[in-house]
Write a structure and sequence with these properties.
Layout (H helix, E strand, L loop, with lengths): L2 H19 L1 H21 L2 H21 L4 H8 L17
Helix pairs in contact: 1-3, 2-3
Length: 95
């Protein structure tokens, strides 16, 4: 699946709810999911990590749709084929 297909799927499924909820509340949902991901990582629960990563990705798609941002284009602009900081591939930044 291409990123644009994922984003369209999220739009078709949830855009009506996301618009009603608004960007601030949608961001809070994303932050909650990131907390759940952190907890799954702390427990080293691979199945839950997998689920929470999917949830985080979904909420990022929801935010992109709310702001009418093409995630695939934004990603390719920021991360073409090298690190945006050191301009190397692979990255040679120390952190």
């Amino acid at each position: 699946m291409e990123i644009s297909e994922f984003q369209k799927r999220m739009y078709d499924l949830y855009a009506h709810n996301d618009r009603r909820r608004g960007a601030a509340a949608t961001t809070l949902w994303l932050v909650e999911e990131i907390g759940e991901l952190a907890e799954a990582i702390r427990r080293e629960d691979m199945e839950n990590i997998r689920e929470e990563l999917a949830d985080c990705f979904a909420w990022i798609g929801a935010l992109a749709n709310l702001y009418d941002i093409d995630l695939e284009a934004a990603f390719m602009e920021k991360y073409p084929d090298h690190c945006p900081t050191c301009k190397q591939n692979p990255c040679i930044c120390t952190d």
